[in-house]
Amino acid sequence: MILRYHTPLTPDEQRAHGIAEPQSLAIADKVRFSELDANNHVNNKSYMTWFETVRVRHFNGICMPCYGDLPKPRLLVRSLNLRFVREMLMDEDYITTAHVTGFRTTSYSLRQEIWAGDLRAYMDAIMVMQRPDGSGERYPLPPALTAMFADLGAVAGE
């Protein structure tokens, strides 16, 4: 199966490229020369950029519609834990995924993975919503969003 770049992949496309459990969002791309370090491996900054790109697309495309007419929140990364599993090299196709694993009143846990036939890296992040006015006050997740998270298998209170 041909891998489509820069477009959300269907569950069948995800499975065909080695992802056993399809995720809420999966986007494919290819390693570029500019993403390599002096040892011709993908540099650490590139992984962070790939994760950030999909994290933002996940929030804007999947989460944001649940806000409807409500003011749009400020989305903050509270913490993250990144694990490198195996190196990546020039011209490798890869898929970056994102899905919510848990949620609370004003935050959610996001799991992201990078696949290139097998798992190459993963990152767990805590995302916190703040009011859009810059006050720093937390902003509750709307009921439509928490319901969607629960429907997608995320656990309340985690």
Describe the protein's architecture and organization.
By secondary structure, the protein is of the alpha+beta class. The protein has helices spanning 11-16, 44-63, 143-151, and strands at residues 25-30, 74-84, 93-103, 107-115, 119-130, 155-156. The protein has one domain (11-156): Thiol Ester Dehydrase, Chain A (Roll), CATH 3.10.129. Strands 1, 2, 3, 4, 5 and 6 form a 6-stranded mixed sheet that branches. The mean pLDDT is 96.
Q: Which labels suit this protein?
A:
22% helix, 6 strands, Thiol Ester Dehydrase, Chain A, globular, 3 helices, 158 residues
**CATH fold title:** Thiol Ester Dehydrase, Chain A
Mind telling me the CATH class? Answer: Alpha Beta
How many separate helices? 3
At CATH level 2, the architecture is Roll
C-alpha end-to-end distance: 37 Å
Structural class computed from helices and strand pairing = alpha+beta
Shape: globular
CATH homologous superfamily, by name?
A: Hotdog Thioesterase
Helix content: 10-25%
Given as residue ranges, the uncertain stretches (5+ residues, pLDDT < 50) are none
Number of strands: 6
What letter string, H or E per element, gives the SSE order? Answer: HEHEEEEHE
